[in-house]
Amino acid sequence: STLWCKLFWSCLALGQNVEAYSALELNPDKSQTSDLLRSFLFDLLERGNAKELLNYSYSGMESCIFEYMLSRARSLPIGEAKDYYNFLYSLNITKNNPKQASIVMYEQAYRLKTETEANSRSLNQRVQCLLSTMTCLGLVHASNAWVERPDIRKGILGHDRNVEDEEFTVEVDELLDLKKEYDLTVAQLSLLQLMERQALNPNVPSSAQETVAQLVNMKGYELAISVARRVFFYDLFVIREQIHNITRL
Question: How do residues 46-69 score in pLDDT, each as one tens digit?
Answer without folding.
Answer: 999 999 999 999 988 998 999 999
